[in-house]
């Protein structure tokens, strides 16, 4: 089999590409390089510069590389930006996915692995979010991910596809310093950026209904995200009949923003007190995963803790700066 990985040059994508290649899978990457880096792709893995918004690009790579499975990671992912620019997010995340599915069906591809998000749950009033927790997204980013799941499920029924949707929780860390996050929209690199600039890290709201007033999240190492994709690919490869799974990727442990910033201060050696800023639109108070179903279905379990996430991210940040 050959797996097409859209967005494979980005932060999460390149970790997935590296682990799949190391696991012996044949992969090809399609990326427009708007936020990815070509030099982070392993040697020997083909990279096609193109867009999921261009059906011709997708048809060409599926036909030209004998693609038999699609792993769709490419997407816009910033919550606040999605609130400000919903049309951009619906176009990039849903039109792009529709093109991917149309090209897959036309090219005879029957295995699809989809990068979804915990944002589909919105503000769940439960300690641990299971896959059966009602989905009620509160921002356009989460809406596009949920509608994307619906679209994949409909296509699976109509065309006999095998599908897995993986709902990421909050991703951090780096498997190697050169694979670190290039952006500064996530909490950990955002804090590093402000510390590097001599500024206090920001807490967006300290009046949430949580123990310390700051948002609580389930942080997951990007290497664990990648290993979950390897497990899902193997399950899809082995499926004799169509399967349809929707699975959380998390650790089942809530960490508040204030707690995470304390770890960042300790590991970076920058004990700067955080500054409280207004809440950001679209941020839920608490979202923490139950990871029981993915363990049952794929035999997968997260291996890295918070210190590992922050220390590996700090090493990557120091390499770049």
Explain this structure.
The protein is α/β, with parallel strands linked by helices and 321 residues long. The chain has 2 domains: 2-171 and 219-249, 3-Layer(aba) Sandwich (Rossmann fold), CATH 3.40.50.720; 174-217 and 252-320, UDP-galactose 4-epimerase, domain 1. The protein has 10 helices and 14 strands. The chain has helices at residues 11-22, 55-64, 79-84, 86-106, 140-159, 187-196, 222-238, 257-268, 292-298, 306-320, and strands at 2-6, 26-31, 47-49, 69-72, 111-117, 162-168, 170-172, 202-204, 216-217, 219-221, 244-249, 255-256, 275-277, 286-287. Strand 5 (111-117), helix 5 and strand 6 form a beta-alpha-beta unit. Helix 4 (86-106) runs parallel beside helix 5 and helix 6 (187-196) crosses helix 8 (257-268). It is globular and about 55 Å long.
List the helices and strands and how they pair.
Layout: E1 2-6, H1 11-22, E2 26-31, E3 47-49, H2 55-64, E4 69-72, H3 79-84, H4 86-106, E5 111-117, H5 140-159, E6 162-168, E7 170-172, H6 187-196, E8 202-204, E9 216-217, E10 219-221, H7 222-238, E11 244-249, E12 255-256, H8 257-268, E13 275-277, E14 286-287, H9 292-298, H10 306-320
Parallel strand pairs: 1-2, 1-4, 2-3, 4-5, 5-6, 6-11, 7-10, 8-13, 9-14
Antiparallel strand pairs: 9-12
């Amino acid at each position: 089999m050959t797996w097409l990985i859209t967005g494979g040059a980005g932060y999460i994508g390149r970790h997935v590409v590296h682990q799949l290649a190391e696991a012996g899978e044949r992969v090809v990457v399609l990326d427009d390089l708007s936020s990815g880096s070509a030099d982070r792709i392993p040697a020997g893995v083909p990279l096609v510069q193109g867009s999921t918004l261009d059906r011709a690009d997708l048809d060409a790579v599926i036909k030209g590389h004998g693609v038999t499975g699609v792993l769709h990671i490419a997407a816009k992912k910033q919550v606040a930006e999605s609130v400000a620019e919903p049309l951009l997010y619906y176009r990039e995340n849903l039109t792009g996915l529709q093109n991917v599915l149309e090209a897959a069906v036309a090219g005879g591809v029957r295995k699809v692995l989809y990068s979804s998000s915990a944002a589909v749950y919105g503000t769940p009033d439960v300690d641990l979010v299971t896959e059966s927790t009602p989905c009620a997204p509160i921002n356009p980013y989460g809406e596009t991910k949920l509608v994307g799941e619906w679209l994949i499920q409909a296509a699976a029924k109509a065309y006999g596809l095998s599908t897995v949707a993986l709902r990421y929780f909050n991703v951090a860390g780096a498997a190697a310093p050169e694979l670190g996050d290039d952006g500064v929209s996530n909490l950990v690199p955002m804090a590093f950026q402000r510390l590097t600039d001599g500024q206090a890290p920001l807490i967006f709201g300290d009046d949430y209904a949580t123990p310390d007033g700051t948002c609580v999240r389930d942080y997951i190492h990007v290497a664990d995200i990648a290993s979950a994709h390897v497990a899902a690919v193997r399950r899809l490869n082995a499926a004799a009949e169509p399967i349809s799974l929707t699975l959380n990727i998390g650790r089942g442990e809530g960490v508040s923003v204030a707690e995470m910033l304390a770890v960042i201060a300790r590991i970076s050696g920058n004990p700067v007190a955080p500054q409280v800023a207004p809440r950001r639109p679209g941020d839920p108070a608490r979202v923490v995963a139950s990871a029981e179903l993915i363990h049952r279905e794929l035999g997968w379990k997260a291996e890295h803790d918070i210190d590992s996430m922050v220390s590996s991210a700090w090493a990557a940040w120091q390499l770049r700066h």
